[in-house]
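Lecture notes, unit on protein representations.

Consider one protein chain, 178 amino acids long.
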Amino acid sequence: MTQVQSKEQADAMAKALETCVNAVLLAKVYAQVQREKMDGLDRRLLAEIEVIDQWTGKRITDPKFAWCMTEEQTRPYYDRRNQELRAMGYDLPADYCPALLAEEVVRVAERNLVVAAEQFFPDLTVDALLSLGLDAYHRYIDLLMGLVVSGPDYRKPAIPGDPAGGGIFPLPVRDVSS
């Protein structure tokens, strides 16, 4: 494994990874906003439409358990959800979830960060880290993020939607590891 020999090398490494770290941070903000919107929509729909858990026979009120609804209820529920998403301004194929798409952007941005760090830590590849488990993989990402954001020259990214920004938008992040 490559060892960082000086503060200058650590600063250079942090600077090289800054774009990837900022992509992860922005993707996480976007995913959080989308998750809050979708959870709110799903809670409202579950309050308006009686959806029954196929195993317990009880009414579903928590969106985390919507997957438990009966087959007969699935299509009408998702048809209504698709209508609501279109009314909210989303232009997605039927049954796509903006929150899940945003969470995929986070996953890709995190993977891109790990791939970018391989130039400094060649033994810590995505596959090597994942073979240690998801917890180790996420701890490594957290360590890389901490290394970068704690640097003296780090400047946090402008968050879209801030008064100086132009609103929250989908981040075009491409998986570079494929």
